[in-house]
Amino acid sequence: MNKKEFLIWIAGFVDGEGSIGISRVSKPDGRVSYNRVFFCITNNDKKTLEEIKKFFGDIGTIKQKIKKKDPLIESNKNRFGKRDCYDFALGKRQAKEVLKMLYPYLKVKKKQARLVLDLPAQRWIANRETGKHHGGRIADKKIEKIQEKMYWQSRKLNSGSSRYKKTLV
């Protein structure tokens, strides 16, 4: 399979088994700290996910999903259904790079990918006491408003509800 064919195959895989969007990270007091890009492919075939990871230059992580322990189903404590289940996940920069390559071939998740690719970078004001950016606030209120709008668009696209899909860009 050549590079283009493999990208088309991966795009189909993402359309069927992937999750793309924007989530929120909150502080312990409940205030929103920042928005985070997510890109994940879930499957029970770890070798397939390893092949995808290798294709993109060995970026991202593959982790086994662990189901919460159910005392009634002791033999099924680390499984989803009857098989092991794995996630291949990428961070924001990695996700954007991969989505740039996959975008032309996506069908189902194209709008979610567009939102992630268009999400503006966050600029942080450092905490005055520590000089660190962690725990600061976004410097540009315009960017913050754009990110807020894009977060809600992502939520609507990923809800699966057709009533939301009619109102989006």
Care to describe what's here?
By secondary structure, the chain is an alpha+beta fold. The chain has a single domain (3-165), classed as Endonuclease I-creI. Helices cover 40% and strands 20% of the residues. It has helices at 3-17, 46-55, 92-102, 110-118, 141-159, 162-165; strands spanning 18-26, 32-43, 61-64, 86-90, 124-125, 137-138. It has a four-stranded antiparallel sheet with strand order 1-2-4-3. It has a two-stranded antiparallel ribbon with strand order 5-6. Strand 1 (18-26) and strand 2 (32-43) form a beta hairpin. Helix 4 (110-118) packs antiparallel against helix 5 (141-159). The chain starts with a helix and ends with a helix.
Radius of gyration: 18 Å
Mean pLDDT: 79
Strands, count: 6
CATH topology, by name, is: Endonuclease I-creI
What is the helical fraction, as a range of percent?
40-55%
Unreliably modeled segments: 162-169
| Architecture per CATH nomenclature, i.e. the level-2 architecture | Roll
CATH class: Alpha Beta
How many structural domains in the coordinates?
1
Order of helices and strands: HEEHEEHHEEHH
Structural class: alpha+beta
SSE order and pairing:
Elements: H1 3-17, E1 18-26, E2 32-43, H2 46-55, E3 61-64, E4 86-90, H3 92-102, H4 110-118, E5 124-125, E6 137-138, H5 141-159, H6 162-165
Antiparallel strand pairs: 1-2, 2-4, 3-4, 5-6
Question: What is this entry, summarized?
Answer:
With about 170 residues, this protein is an alpha+beta fold.
